[in-house]
Write a structure and sequence with these properties.
Blueprint: H1 4-23, H2 34-43, H3 45-106, H4 109-112, H5 115-140, H6 146-174
Length: 177
């Protein structure tokens, strides 16, 4: 007849084996007991968990670096847009002064009836529209997407090119007066 210690030994071995079999279900060391800890360490479950978390960290750090690089790129693009707007403002001031001088030159009875005067009026209307575009673009540069701000700057520069051409035409037309 088996004694009580034999039964206790068999039950203890059974409990230990059941604990080992179940410990693989949860690789979190904070959730298991002593047997789970041994199983997690020996079986590599803890190391796999650490490796997964380290891989996630590396991925997130890489993503953070990419976002920081993109933010720096956008900052530089906005800085370039501001620079271009400052250049456009200088060009606007020069064209405005040039058109004012032409207006003063043509401001006579004969001059106001000339083709040069009509072209000057067209140029001044274009100047007002371009100045308005410049003011809007300058005020929205921080809030608009970079591509939209770049498009606004291109349009302003195109308008300035047209204004400079109109001023040259008025110069040529007024030369004979």
């Amino acid at each position: 007849m088996p004694n009580l210690t034999s039964y206790a030994f068999v039950i203890s071995v059974g409990v230990l084996m059941a604990g080992c079999a179940q410990s693989g279900a949860n690789p979190d060391p904070s959730q298991g007991g002593f047997i789970s800890g041994i199983q997690g360490t020996v079986g590599g479950g803890y190391q796999r968990r650490i490796d997964e978390r380290e891989d996630m960290l590396v991925g997130e750090e890489t993503q953070q670096q990419a976002l920081l690089a993109r933010a720096e790129s956008l900052r530089q693009e906005r800085e370039q847009i501001s620079y271009e707007l400052n250049r456009a403002e200088t060009r606007l001031d020069k064209v405005s002064s040039r058109l004012s001088a032409l207006r003063a030159q043509l401001n006579s009875e004969k001059g106001r009836q000339s083709e040069a005067w009509q072209t000057l009026q067209e140029a001044q209307a274009k100047l007002k529209a371009t100045e308005k575009s410049y003011r809007v673009a300058s005020s929205e540069v921080a809030s608009l997407p970079v591509a939209d701000s770049q498009k606004n700057v291109r349009n302003i520069n195109d308008d300035l090119g047209e204004l400079e051409a109109l001023a040259s035409i008025v110069d040529e037309l007024s030369a004979g007066l």
